[in-house]
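Here is one chain, start to finish.
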Amino acid sequence: MKFILLSFAFLCTFSLSAQQVIGFEDRVPEEFTSPDKKSLSLSNRYYKEGKKSLEWNFVPGSTMYVALDAPQVLNNKTEATHGITLWIYNEKSQPDSLRFEFLNAEGKVSYWFTYRLQSPGWRACWIGFKSMRGDKTDKAIASYRIVAPNRKGRVFFDRWKFPEKAMNLRTTPDMQIDYNSLAVGRDLWHWCRVWEWEQYAYDIPRPAKLTEQQRRDLKTIEERLNEALTPPAASTVAVAVKKAMATYAKADIYPSGSGFTGAPLLAPDELHRNQGELSWNDLEAMLTGFAYDAYCNKSYEAESNYFTVWDYAIDQGFAYGSGMGTNHHYGYQIRKIYTTAWLMRKAILKSSRRDDILKTLLFWSALQETRRPCAEIRDEMLDSWNTLLQPKLISAMMIPDECARVQALYGLSRWVSGSVNCTPGTIGGIKVDGTTFHHGGFYPAYTTGALATVSDYIAMTGGTEFVPSLEARRLLASAFTAMRNYSNLIEWSTGLGGRHPFSGKMGGADIKAFAQLALSGDLSGQSGEFDRALAADYLRLMNGKNSPETRFFKEKGIQPAKAPQGFFVYNYGAAGIHRRANWMVTLKGFNTNVWGSEIYTKDNRYGRYQSYGSIQIMGYPSRKASGYVEEGWDWNRLPGTTTIHLPLVLLDNPRSGTLMARSTENFAGTSSLEGRNGMFAMKLKEADYKNFTPDFVARKSAFCFDNRVVCLGTGISNSNAQYPTETTIFQSEYRPGKAFISVMGKEIDKPSFGAKLAGNSSCWLRDGYGNHYLVLEGLVRVQIAEQQSAKDKDKSPTKGIFASAYIVHGLAPKDATYAYSVLIQPTAEELAAAQKDPGYSILRRDRQAHIVFDRASGVTGYAAFEAVSLPEDEIVADIAPETMVMHRTAEDGTLIVSVCDPNLHIKEKTYTTPEPSAPSFKTLHLRGAWSLAVSNEKVKIQLTGDVTEITVTCRHGQLVEFRLKQ
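Its structure:
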């Protein structure tokens, strides 16, 4: 029930800092007046809250006044955040408007706006003072009024708030108030642009008649949609029908006047479920269940209910031209409305409400955006693909006029082709290195599903005139290939998990996408029947499971691909992937442009350290099989990270909202040589938030050579004298008799163990999963213990027995260091050889540089944190600051060199920015006279005496590799 905050005492003390929630349940509020006293009354004919609304009967010249007890004085801040929200019911479409005017003490209008009455039913009226019209010179508001159009009529008001002191930043412009600019000012809020896009006109002509090819193509897509959208199993249908009936009962829908009464339908941001109000997911549940029942069970009652719900939804504001106050993220709650509308399309096309339903479907699918090519700068594309691409296709295919349908499909396919491009900066979409961005960062958890919807679209339109371009399909394939590279088999590491630290993986739709893309044509350019490489990847990911696609590819002689091998650089995520055999190592950092983790109040609340130089080995096809489970997990000890070991209460998210901390340091990322071996380097600098230690710094590196990883740290310093700083070597679940550890050659297989060791050339450890560690220095703690922890979502306690090893740097360390190496799943011969000679040399390890030479591969890796001179190096004389260099001498005597600046060089530091990565220039000097063995436009060489100056143009965090000869 609503309530009225309009007592005399309240009004005498009312100020702009307070907020009126004005109800219309008991009486017309005293502050609402009109010269015709009988024109205002309460009505139960329609309501959007409680059971009554305020009815205003007007004639030409009518005005309704709302008095304020004291002037409400705006300033620059409150003008930007305050406004008014209410809902208005209009019984009949009219070509005119209501005018809201806000007056100063002299009765002059300072702010005003108009509200169009073109749509019947309930429509939101949300607008901030910032978006209103008027001269706005006098910011003291003494009262306000609503001026009627020049005719006789009536409207109904409900859910009235004034002043609304925190206008929703995603307030949605719509037909009623199309100049509300709070949301449109940010391209991010793509949800809120549906009315803006509705103003677009097709620049693709509507064909006068269809060609035979177009008719065949329409039929092909229709048949594919029929197959893809076949109802689920009978048991699933039964559950959906039951849910629809239960929700329908709660909705309590009854015809009233020209519309309906029933539970108010609202966007989640203003929803009060405890008062019986409903949202889009409830609408989806009703339409889905009734559609299944009507289609599968031939239920006449369900079909009748289906159309009643549609009438109710449109009357409540889920309609063409309506923004419902704010519509952000609505796509996640309405997808089944479209898939089941396809099942009901014949009934819809015969319905008397056909036009209203189809206009609603087209509008909320945002198909209107595709009347023009996809904008080059268009953020949050993954949301659009994931939630609205299929609705767009269904809506286009439900257009009754075939010629208009073809026009819409041409526009949609062109838009899809344009949307699958390399997006600039940190806005959403696919980057040049194959990473996929959402929320301003590399985010596999949003990649899964989103890319698959594009592949679904390609599969639906394959072989027709409406299939997306070859260029788009190739780029999409590159993103899936990247996903294949950073997943082992289908799961990725905690470091890449975003706010889903223990659940990130490829879904069935992602795996199927490899087959869909393979069947869309030979993307390799070799004019084959299909793409053989993608087909082989598909068979590997299916892991022996059967499907029509697996049978087809096997019949064509395709064998499952081997696991990816090599080192893969993903510096849009400050990440690298090192792979051999069937294991994978993920290396992860963060910098000024790359956030370290996404932390919500109820997701990943303890995930601060995900990118503090994590080196996570997935030696088996899943996190769990590799020893990483949440129950009992010590969130301070992700392998490879250097952290301050905090109690969970201090590690918890210090903010009430989202935290996506970045560093003030630019240097963090990876590089590789010949795509086989690679390295990671990072200037670690903790951010400045509550319970953080902003002077916490370190310089970290990891050099990956075959199954060897050399891990170095220097300059580890902070002022936290209460909690110790540590570098974690490993943490994995202890499994008796299966996953036990070894310490200095002695196997430890018991649930309680602890030891302190001094790192040295004989300090060998083994985790429970076949990986061996040589710790060269420092105080090393090794333990097997039951750990008490908590789940990241709800803080519920967990426990588990884990084996851990970590280097203790102590309280408030000053320039602490570490050095250890990892031998990943070695053979007995490899282990014995490494215990005699680890096979690498640490050439330098200080504040300026970390340098390692690997004898087996002949590769030398340089992490230059500062400008560094190398007087003892036989080849490299000096390197520019914040540069990664790798080289080896090839069998033909040429020097293979890679140079990488992992910094994206994006100046604007915001949530997301379209500012593109800028080029940078890195210089190093080599001893002797060198020239390019093969020309490279990114490399310039100048010889001065017996020193060769090499200047490399770097961009997008991508390495530049070249060969030199003497």
